[in-house]
Each structure stands twice: as C-alpha cells, then as structure tokens.
Amino acid sequence: MRQGTITREDATVDYMRRGGGPPLLFIPGGSGHGGVLERLAAQLADAYDVVTMSSRVASPQQPGTVLGDQHPKVHAEDAAGLIESLFDEAPIVVGFSSGAVTTLELLARHPEHARFAVVHEPPLVHLLPEAARLRAELGSVRDRARAEDFAGAGAALAALMIDTNIRFEAPAVRRFGTWADDYAGTAPEAPTPELLELMGRLSELQPLFLEHMLVQFTGCEPDLAALEAQADRLIPAVGVDSRKDLPFQTTAALASRLGLPLTELPGGHLGSVDRPTQFGSALGSLLNESIGLVPPQ
To answer: Residue ranges of the domains in the chain?
Structure first.
C-alpha cells in the first residue's frame, strides 16, 4: 500500500493506493477517513487500482488552517483534483453516505472524471415529502452539538436515522453475484485492532461532523437534470439490511426520480465497514459486470 497527499488551494487531501488494474476511487462517509475502507479496498486490489481518499476534514492540515462549514461541491472539487493528479483515465467512483453525496456532485459537475459512479445510501433528505421537518430536526442535532451536548446530538441523530415508513419503491431491485444465497444468518465481521484504534481517533472528528457537515451534506440538492443526463453511468445502491433506515428511503427516492433500479449490497448503512468480505465480493461482481458496459473516459 502506498500513501500520499495532494495539496489543494486551501487544504490537503490524503489518499491510500493499492493493487493494479482499472482505476477505482473510494470516497468514504462520515467525516471521510479512508482508513475505514481499507479492508474493503484489500478485497478488490487484485483486480483494480484502488485509491481510497480521505476528506480534507480527515486529512492533517497545515498549521493555521481553519475548517469551518463543509460543502459537498467543495469536496467534489477535491475528488476531481485527486483524480487529475493520480489517474490517466477516469476511475470508477464509489461513494458511501456523505461520500455518496460528494460523488453525486462530482458526476453532476465533472462527468468526465468518472467512468461510472456507485452511490451507496446518499442521505439526501430534500427528496422526501417531509423534507422540511427532517431539515429542522437535523438542524436541531447541529444546535445540540454546538451547545457541546455531543452525546445528546449523537443519540438524536441515531433516532432520526430509523425510518420504517416506506414511501418510495425503486422501479426495480437487483443484486450482483451469489452473495445472497447464503447471506441469511451471517453476522458482521469483528473489527480488527487497527480499525478499533482508528475509530477511537475518529471520535475526535465527530463534533466537527455534527457541527459543520451534517446539515450541509444531508441538505445538499444535486443537479437532478445533470444527473439524469448521466443516468446510464449512475448506480444507486442500498444495504439489504437498511430497509428501516432513512438513507434507504432517500436512495430509493433518488432512484425513483431518475428511473433507475436499486442495487442491493450486503449489510446495512455501514456494510462496507463491518462486512468487508461479503460487501467486497458483491461490489466486485457489480463492478465486473458493469465495467464492460461503460467504455473508459
């Protein structure tokens, strides 16, 4: 594995690279540390040149750098800059949660920078009928964090993510590979000591995420007309265990608006982190089948 950093005009962005083959870029969720996807990256490195980027929030910055409110369009520009620096051709881009929002902005603004894009559960609340209420509740979570009630903010956010009201059904649901044949009864993989240590360090970024990313990313409104123009290169994906979660419904709403099928993958919202072997196998099948349909950019 190789590690590196690119320098943007006002921030730095770290990345990790491994493997060889067609280029593949992972954009992680949450505050955006690429280390949480390392087990998944290892699953695909035999077939792909896998780069996992860390956001400017999760990358060490120069002294004096002030990280205020974050915006998906800025993170998309960071991803575009990284692609221009590292790849000779447009990579497949796979984004998770807030990273999926970044990926949608990248595809809408710079379609030439993505061979195709997989977006796993982007939490775009504006697509739901009760968007105003959800925005208000997410704003309340941010306010609690700014009042330094981080435990209360985290608990309120976790409760908000539970959603049993099925409002959107995608035109079709599909799966790639045979992972579902023996999925029932399986459990998430135990975290490695390295992942546990990383998660402990990332807890320090939670206040920044709650105060400066949560509202901006969940409230993002990507250009749906631009995305519709690239619909043949966009794959909305959800976790098979996510049906009672809000990000499942936002992703189903996106698929419905664009007339696209939903692709199911193992696990829930964090399937890429806590089921990396199953998730990697399913994602590999998805990529291997899709890559022949979209020529290099």
So the answer is: 2-124+164-195+219-291
Measured CA to CA, the distance from residue 239 to residue 163 in angstroms comes to 14
99-135 core/surface letters (b: 16 or more CB in 10 A; e: else): bbbbbbbbbbbbbebbbbbbbbbbbbbebbeebeebe
Tell me the per-residue pLDDT of 96-155, one tens digit each, with 9 for 90 and over: 999 999 999 999 999 999 999 999 999 999 999 999 999 999 999 999 999 999 999 999
Q: Report the candidate in 95, 56, 59, 98 with the shortest Cα–Cα distance to residue 77.
A: 56
CB 117 within 8 A of CB 93: yes
Q: In sequence order, what are the residues at sequence separation of 6 or more whose Cβ sits closer than 8 angstroms to the Cβ of residue 57?
A: 31, 32, 67, 70, 205, 208, 209, 212, 213
Q: Which is it for the CA torsion 98, 247, 174, 258, positive or negative?
A: negative
> pTM of the entire structure?
0.96
State both tokens at 37: 């996807």
Measured from the Cβ of residue 275, the count of other Cβ atoms closer than 10 Å reads 26
Q: How many C-beta neighbours within 10 Å does residue 284 have?
A: 18
Based on DSSP, count helices (H) and strands (E) in the chain, helices before strands. 12, 9
**8 Å CB contact between 179 and 284:** no
Domain 2-124+164-195+219-291 class, CATH top level: alpha beta
Residues in the chain: 297
Q: Give the 3-state secondary structure of residue 268.
A: coil
- Interior CA angle at 170 toward 285 and 162, to 5°? 95
What is the CB-side half-sphere exposure of residue 80 using CA atoms within 13 A? 17
Which residue bears the tokens 């775009």?
A: 124
**3-state SS record for 100-148:** HHHHHHHHHHCHHHCCCEEEECCCCHHHCCCHHHHHHHHHHHHHHHHCC
